[in-house]
Specification:
Elements (H helix, E strand, L loop, with lengths): L2 H6 L11 E7 L2 E10 L5 E6 L11 E3 L4 E6 L7 E7 L5 E4 L15 E2 L11 H5 L11 E5 L1 H4 L10 H15 L3 E4 L3 E2 L12 E5 L6 H13 L3 E6 L3 E3 L19 H4 E2 L4 E3 L5 H18 L3 E4 L2 H5 L19 H17 L4 E4 L21 E3 L1 H12 L9 H5 L1 H4 L5 E5 L11 H4 L4 H17 L3 E5 L24 H19 L13 E8 L4 E6 L8 E6 L5 E8 L4 E7 L20 E2 L10 E7 L3 E9 L6
Parallel strand pairs: 9-10, 9-21, 10-13, 13-17, 17-18, 18-19, 19-20, 20-21
Antiparallel strand pairs: 1-2, 2-5, 3-6, 4-5, 6-7, 6-8, 11-12, 14-16, 15-16, 22-23, 23-24, 24-29, 25-28, 26-27, 26-29
Helix pairs in contact: 4-5, 7-9, 14-15
């Protein structure tokens, strides 16, 4: 079927194969490039570039049925810069980048660059063949990254995608991360936007290299067993004149009415989700990163801003029923996720959605939005608020700590300690913690211990694993030099050990989506701010018990209720001296285990006693049973 027709009807999920610029091959020899651009209301369109000295000597021809302009230029060659010169419906002259360009100049220059997409031979076949359904139970530990500030050259310049890939793969293996999530790598003009205001939706930013370099990045991580997730921004685009704004002299990609078409606080314009061509553009863009770059997931940014017509607006345009729900955006999201689920069942589709919109991760057929995962923003805010509260006041925040379990299984959640929580004066995770330096480190270790024990996949922002004092700074690399100090090196060692434990203990993730995998053994001790959790496996021998002491005082001979009798052993202790803890004795017997006492406690058939270290999280597991389990 005609790809232009499919584009016009919103059903072309691979429009990047027909729109944009492509090398022309004749008898095995490349003879120029073919150009195609959608500009339905333009009066005239020319291709200008290095190949014609930026003159108007190459007018394009319009297809009256599709609004797509086409032209082939024999002299055009790889790496030539180009733009579209458009005479808009308003009679004004516009110089626009190619919306489907595969490569761009590095900012502040903004021309598109001719690029042959057949540029790489993949070697990740084994990894791709082994990928499972996105909903399948598995350990998910996501390392969120900003490529421009993870590492840099000594002179401050950016590293290439290939250099980052080699260092990153080794680091993820060392630390135990299963996934990497990249803040947007699509081309963008302003470093300060961190990539969230995109002008080149089909181009990786040239700050770090070429598309082939980024393919190597993904390929290399795949060959080392690491999945790659990209932050993706279908909600809006910036007002840069070389971009999509008034592309053909009219609101081509954006809504015309500013009451729905602008986010003035962000200085951006909203995609017009009612237009079939815009849907084809965005769905094709999602498909593009999956097909052409083999990515394993897309984290969809600012979903809340898409769902509500009044989001961030004092004046808004109501829907046809006078309400605030954005029906067109909801329909787009459902269409997008239906396409991905049908054609790419392994791909994670993650919603950054901060409201109580129902069924975000439920199937479209059941009235859901169709995402596979949702960031658990409620857990993040409540948890950080609790940990920032000084220990003496936590007795009054006890219920807040427990509240996340009220809704823990309403969606398929990812627990997130993201970049948003360590910028704009919010302080680093370490500096959020109250008290002196020792208490700060102890609290952060306990926070990570609790996060690992809580149902849901896990995401932490880069650097958090070694606890920098300062906030994240996008304009310089992380403070890796801090690792020469014991406390930061020990925090990194603790994080790696906790990650390895999470991956190896199936009970910590196999039943993440129901009460089958979680039980409060005791969450009633307000006075001591102690919580006891049981993460349940397929048998009691797989169960892991987690004891959290949220005050900086040890508690001796504390009774720990358990589901079955036997001998229990500590498998990780955040207060261990090797991690920078106090090394407080937990009171094991000479064999290093705790023996249960066969008396009912807290509604459980037995318990054992242990000394709880100050500000700590301790994981225990049964190593033998006194009698046969029934």
């Amino acid at each position: 079927m005609d790809p232009g027709y499919l584009f016009n009807t919103g059903n072309n999920r691979k429009s990047y194969l027909s729109l944009g610029s492509f090398p022309i091959s004749k008898d095995g020899t490349e003879e120029g490039f073919r150009f195609s651009v959608w500009a339905p209301n333009a009066r005239a369109v020319h291709v200008v570039g290095d190949f014609n000295h930026w003159s108007v000597s190459h007018p394009m021809t319009r297809n009256e049925n599709t609004g797509i302009w086409t032209l082939s230029i024999a002299k055009a060659k790889q790496w030539d810069r180009y733009k579209y010169r458009i005479i808009g419906t308003d009679g004004r002259e516009y110089y626009k980048g190619d919306p489907f360009a595969r490569h761009f100049e590095t900012r502040p220059s903004d021309a598109s660059i001719l690029y042959d997409p057949d540029d790489y031979i993949w070697k990740d076949e084994e990894f791709c063949a082994a990928r499972t359904h996105a909903f399948e139970a598995r350990p998910i530990l996501i390392y969120e990254m900003h490529l421009g500030s993870w590492r840099r050259h000594p002179d401050g310049n950016f590293m290439n995608y290939r250099q980052i890939a080699c260092d990153l793969a080794k680091y993820c293996i060392e630390m135990g991360y299963t996934h990497v999530e990249l803040m947007p790598v699509m081309e963008h003009p302003l470093d300060d936007s961190w990539g969230y205001q995109i002008t080149g939706f089909f181009a990786v930013t040239s700050r770090f290299g070429t598309p082939a370099d980024f393919k190597f990045f993904v390929d290399h991580l795949h060959q080392n067993g690491i999945c790659v997730i990209l932050d993706w921004v279908p909600a809006h685009f910036p007002r840069n004149l070389e971009g999509l704004i008034r592309f053909d002299g009219s609101p081509c990609y954006e809504y015309e009415d500013p009451r729905i078409g602008e986010h003035r606080e962000w200085g951006t314009f909203v995609f017009d989700f009612s237009k079939s061509e815009v849907r084809s553009f965005l769905i094709s863009n999602a498909t593009f990163w999956i097909e052409e770059f083999h990515v394993d997931g897309l984290r969809v940014d600012a979903v809340s801003s898409m769902l509500y017509r009044n989001y961030g607006r004092s004046e808004y345009l109501p829907n046809v029923h006078g309400g605030t729900d954005h029906y067109e955006a909801v329909d787009f999201i459902r269409q997008l996720n239906s396409v991905i689920r049908e054609h790419y069942p392994h791909v994670m589709m993650i919603a950054e959605e901060s409201t109580a919109w129902p069924k975000v991760t439920h199937p479209v057929a059941e009235g859901g939005l169709g995402f596979t995962h949702k960031w658990n923003m409620g857990w993040m805010h409540d948890t950080l608020d609790y940990f920032q509260t000084d220990s003496y006041a936590r007795i009054w925040h006890h219920d807040q700590f427990c509240f996340s379990m009220v809704y823990a299984f309403s969606e398929n959640f990812i627990l997130c300690l993201s970049h948003d929580e360590v910028v704009h004066g919010k302080r680093s995770l370490l500096d959020k913690m109250p008290g002196d330096v020792w208490r700060k480190f102890a609290s952060l270790r306990t926070l990570l211990t609790y996060m690992t024990a809580h149902p849901g996949a896990k995401l932490v922002f880069m650097g958090s694993e070694f606890a920098p004092y300062i906030e994240w700074r996008f304009y310089e690399e992380l403070e890796w030099f801090m690792l020469k100090y014991d406390a930061h090196r020990q925090m990194k060692d603790f994080t790696a050990e906790l990650n390895r434990l999470y991956r190896s203990e199936k009970s910590l993730w196999i039943y993440d989506r129901s009460w089958d995998g979680f039980e409060w053994m005791d969450n009633t001790d307000r006075d001591n701010s102690v919580f006891i959790i049981r993460r349940k496996g397929e048998s009691q021998s797989e169960d892991v018990y987690v004891v959290l002491n949220m005050i900086p005082v040890p508690i001796n001979a504390y009774k720990i209720p358990v589901a079955g009798p036997g001998r229990y052993r500590i498998i990780i202790n955040s207060d261990d001296a090797s991690f920078g803890g106090s090394g407080y004795s937990t009171g094991e017997d000479p064999q290093g285990v705790f023996q249960t006492i066969d008396e009912e406690w807290k509604g459980k058939p037995c318990f054992f006693e242990m000394n709880l270290p100050p500000l700590s999280g301790v994981y225990l597991k049964r190593v033998s049973a006194d009698r046969t389990e029934t």
